[in-house]
């Protein structure tokens, strides 16, 4: 029964995101979002199951829950390479990635937990008729992570944990084909599903009462979309050039990431967090499309992407303003993993600067209503997609409010 | 308290939810004055495509595309002698489904059945002139100087200022500040399209004298301009779609039969496998021979005659459907000389120069713009329209960008380029 509910959630409710950071979704808890997305060294609520499994056994209470969602409003603008005045903009719907975390103490030292969230995703829809439509009209990657996790208190001040990530992925790609009749341009759409798994492990070290250090690692995974549906809409006279029904195989690597963070309680009321995030994006070397049936015009593709590893810095703070009110703020800089010579509008990730803020309201002990707002500016850059000679300037803006609740007792 | 925070959040959301704005420098005219731009040339300049001059084709001629982009850098009105409809003089081709002589269904060509608007044939200068797009289908370099050319060429006749006007006179009436001139294609094309059986190649000295006069007239008012050289005819699909060595014989008895049939024609020989098509050639004994590698078969050749009529094997292909190596050499030599003159004049008059020849040479092996690939292949290549000689709208956009690049490089201007994808491709039925 639970399985069914998860699947419904996946296919009907959840939508992925774009935020100019490859196709990772860093918004997994409003508390973390509000503090510049730093989470590894925090043991504030059940979101530790995802951010640092080690921190899970360092949480207060015996049973902890957290649930919520972020709303991602993302907009990217494009201008053709200079000199030009041609501009286009994305027409992305607001997407609402959710999260559910639960953890329970099995023994005083051992905790078990479960995370259900969407750690990867992108959804980029460009406006109708835009100049890059033969490369991409719409690009969607959705993921659902189901992660059973255990955490153990090794020493008085040392906590370790690990979880198994079972990841369901779904992709949808639409691009236009340069064959048209009086009314329509040809179109290729690809739809596929895949499942993969990986590891999420972490350590929390609590060397002093006012200092916590965390390290967490999420392993690389790869979504292998075997025999994804390839659907062609083309003028009837050229149908033979686009063999149908057809399938296509492609894969999307999900990079490993390593986080290290420190949380320092400067006073009873102030906490400062610094988080270093390293993502092993270099696994994304190319993007292949291997059609089951080829023709003289429908040929397999091997498009270079050659992403680079990224290192980002996140700084956040929280201030316990009143007994039941906590204020938060943060900032981060996220370099783009995308190679500037292979920058495709499928995933227009720019170097980005984020500013975040948020508030938690605790109406009664153990219960917290968390709100966050992140504003992320993708910094204007002129880039190239050399294989298709599609070059131009991109700039993006993302507004991400988050809302969640957490409870422990 | 909570309410106030919510208000702050909401305010922040509204303040930032406006779309991102890209900051780039505004286009500038640099050292050029684009306020009165005239464009002189032939069918390519006029926007002739799919074997006809018609309204939507005229509006996407490379000249009209450039003029529209010049609006961002001080350009003025650019009047085009538009046809009233999509049919022009009635020769427009479209792709249809067809059945060939073997009964195979596929793509074919047909002309539109509708009757063109009679107004297409009426003089329009008095109501709509003067015109800035002065491209005249069929014009050679000398024609642009010729008084009364409108009496010889109805495409000019309909928009000339008077029956005795010349193209250059009509251009100079506008006192142009900037011009484009792309002329010379027809100085070899008439000869080439007849398979060398009629028409003539303009003598180089005549070409030079006429071209010089055009530039002298134009630069008497214009402070800047752009000229383009002439592409190879081997870049044109009409000369490239059918292979010279296209006769494939797989049956030994057929080979024997053909060799017996042509036994008294010394240069007609057939073997198993690939053969040159058999063509008429008055200069060889017996009046026929096999085509040689490098010779060109014109796509005007009726394909049913090739497939079912025994042309190229049992019957020699008439001389007007191919170009011999010798004829090709004549054409190429003339083009080389014309292009050397154009380059020299671009320096002498200090004008922007477009290497259209090089662009189409590159297109033969494939060029990429905005995620699209283009070749000079017929229909599927995307650069040429259905008449296999004139540019498609996307081909015009590619050419316009090359003109714009040349103008910007010479005049330190930043006339914006266009996205090729914003122009239509070949329309399938």
Task: Give a brief description.
The complex is a heterodimer of chains A (409) and B (429). With 409 residues, chain A is mostly beta strands.
Order of helices and strands of chain B: HEHHHEEHEHHHEHHEEHEEEEHEHEHEEH
Strands of the widest sheet of chain B, in order across it, are: 4-1-5-6-13
What is the ordering of alpha helices and beta strands of chain A? Answer: HHHEEEEEEEEEEEEEEEEEEEEE
- SS field, number of helical segments of chain B: 15
Number of helical segments of chain A? Answer: 3
Q: What does the overall shape of chain A look like?
A: elongated
Description:
The complex is a heterodimer of chains A (409) and B (429). Chain A is mostly beta strands and 409 residues long. Chain A contains 3 helices and 21 strands. A 14-stranded antiparallel beta barrel of chain A has the order 1-4-5-7-8-9-10-13-14-17-18-19-20-21. In chain A, a hairpin with a 2-residue loop joins strand 9 (185-208) and strand 10. The longest helix of chain A is centred in the first third of the chain and has 12 residues, at 2-13. The radius of gyration of chain A is 22 Å and the shape is elongated. The model of chain A is unreliable at 1-20 (pLDDT under 50). Chain B is of the alpha/beta class. Chain B is 33% helix and 13% strand. Chain B has helices spanning 2-16, 43-46, 55-59, 62-70, 125-128, 149-152, 154-157, 167-172, 186-193, 204-218, 252-261, 303-307, 325-348, 356-365, 393-411, and strands spanning 37-41, 93-99, 105-111, 133-135, 178-182, 224-228, 247-249, 273-275, 278-280, 288-290, 296-297, 322-323, 352-354, 367-369, 372-374. Chain B has a 5-stranded parallel β-sheet with strand order 4-1-5-6-13, with helices on both faces. Chain B has a two-stranded antiparallel ribbon with strand order 2-3. In chain B, strand 14 (367-369) and strand 15 form a beta hairpin. In chain B, helix 10 (204-218) packs parallel to helix 13 (325-348). The longest helix of chain B has 24 residues, at 325-348. Chain B is globular and about 95 Å long. The model of chain B has no long low-confidence stretch (mean pLDDT 93). Chains A and B meet through strand 2, strand 8, strand 19, strand 20 and strand 21 of A and helix 1 and strand 14 of B.
């Amino acid at each position: 029964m639970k399985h069914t509910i998860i699947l419904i959630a996946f296919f009907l409710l959840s939508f992925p995101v774009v935020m100019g950071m490859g196709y990772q979704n860093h918004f997994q808890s409003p508390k973390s979002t509000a503090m510049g997305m730093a989470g590894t060294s925090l043991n504030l609520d059940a979101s530790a199951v995802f951010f640092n499994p080690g921190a899970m056994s360092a949480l207060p209470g015996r049973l902890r829950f957290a649930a919520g969602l972020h709303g991602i409003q993302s907009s990217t603008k494009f201008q053709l390479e200079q000199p030009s005045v041609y501009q286009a903009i994305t027409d992305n719907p607001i997407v609402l990635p959710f999260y559910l975390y639960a953890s329970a103490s099995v023994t005083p030292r051992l905790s078990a937990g479960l995370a259900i969230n969407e750690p990867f995703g992108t959804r980029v829809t460009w406006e109708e008729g835009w100049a890059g439509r033969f490369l991409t009209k719409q690009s969607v990657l959705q993921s659902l992570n189901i992660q059973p996790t255990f955490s153990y208190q090794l020493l008085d001040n040392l906590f370790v944990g690990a979880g198994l990530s079972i990841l369901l992925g779904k992709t949808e790609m639409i691009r236009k084909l340069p064959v048209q009749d009086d009314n329509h341009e040809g179109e290729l759409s690809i739809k596929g599903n895949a499942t993969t798994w990986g590891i999420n492990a972490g350590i929390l070290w609590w060397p002093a009462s006012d200092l916590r250090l965390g390290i967490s690692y999420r392993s690389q995974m790869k979504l292998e979309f075997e025999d994804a549906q390839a659907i062609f809409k083309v003028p009837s006279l050229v149908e033979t050039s686009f063999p149908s029904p057809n399938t296509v195989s492609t894969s999307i690597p999900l990079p490993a990431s390593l986080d290290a963070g420190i949380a320092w309680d400067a006073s009873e009321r102030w906490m400062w967090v610094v988080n270093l995030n390293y993502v092993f994006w270099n696994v994304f070397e190319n993007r292949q499309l291997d059609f089951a049936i080829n023709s003289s015009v429908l040929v397999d593709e091997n498009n270079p992407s050659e992403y680079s590893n990224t290192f980002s810095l996140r700084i956040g703070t929280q201030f316990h303003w009143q007994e039941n009110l906590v204020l938060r703020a943060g900032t981060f800089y996220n370099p783009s993993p995308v190679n500037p010579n292979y920058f495709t509008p499928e995933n227009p990730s720019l170097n980005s600067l984020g500013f975040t803020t948020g508030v938690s309201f605790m109406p009664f002990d153990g219960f917290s209503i968390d709100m966050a707002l992140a504003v992320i500016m993708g910094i204007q850059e002129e880039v190239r997609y050399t294989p298709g000679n599609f070059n131009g300037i991109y700039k993006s803006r993302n507004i991400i409010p988050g809302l969640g609740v957490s409870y422990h007792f | 308290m909570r309410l106030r925070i919510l208000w702050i959040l909401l305010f922040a959301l509204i303040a930032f939810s406006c779309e991102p704005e890209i900051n780039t420098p505004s286009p500038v005219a640099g050292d050029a004055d684009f306020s009165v731009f005239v464009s002189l040339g032939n069918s390519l300049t006029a926007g002739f495509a799919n074997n006809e001059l018609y309204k939507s084709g005229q509006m996407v001629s490379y000249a009209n595309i450039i003029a529209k982009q010049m609006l961002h850098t001080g350009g003025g009105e650019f009047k085009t002698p538009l046809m009233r409809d999509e049919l022009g003089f009635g020769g427009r081709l479209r792709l249809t489904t067809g059945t060939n002589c073997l009964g195979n269904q596929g793509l074919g060509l047909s002309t539109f059945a509708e009757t063109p608007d009679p107004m297409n044939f009426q003089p329009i200068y008095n109501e709509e002139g003067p015109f800035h797009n002065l491209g005249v289908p069929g014009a050679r370099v000398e024609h642009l100087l010729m008084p009364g050319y409108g009496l010889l060429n109805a495409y000019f006749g309909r928009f000339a200022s008077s029956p005795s006007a010349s193209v250059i006179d009509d251009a100079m009436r506008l006192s142009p500040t900037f011009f484009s001139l792309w002329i010379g294609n027809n100085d070899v094309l008439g000869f080439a399209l007849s398979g060398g059986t009629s028409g003539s190649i303009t003598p180089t000295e005549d070409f030079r004298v006429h071209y010089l006069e055009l530039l002298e007239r134009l630069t008497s008012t214009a402070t800047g301009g752009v000229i383009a050289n002439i592409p190879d005819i081997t870049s044109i699909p009409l000369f490239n779609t059918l292979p010279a060595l296209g006769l494939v014989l797989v049956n030994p008895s057929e080979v024997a039969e053909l060799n017996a049939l042509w036994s008294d024609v010394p240069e007609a020989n057939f073997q198993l496998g690939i053969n040159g098509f058999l063509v008429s050639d008055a200069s060889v004994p017996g009046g026929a021979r096999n085509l040689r590698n490098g010779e060109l078969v014109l796509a005007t050749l009726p394909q049913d005659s090739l497939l079912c009529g025994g042309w190229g094997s049992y019957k020699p292909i008439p001389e007007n459907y191919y170009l011999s190596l010798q004829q090709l050499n004549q054409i190429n030599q003339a083009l080389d000389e014309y292009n050397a003159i154009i380059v020299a004049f671009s320096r002498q008059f200090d004008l922007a120069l477009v290497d259209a020849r090089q662009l189409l040479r590159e297109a033969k092996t494939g060029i990429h713009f905005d995620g699209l690939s283009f070749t000079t292949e017929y229909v599927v290549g995307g650069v040429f329209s259905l008449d296999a000689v004139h540019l498609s709208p996307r081909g015009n956009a590619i050419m316009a960008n090359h003109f714009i690049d040349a103008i910007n490089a010479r005049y330190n201007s930043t006339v914006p380029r266009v996205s090729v994808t914003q122009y239509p491709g070949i329309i399938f039925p």
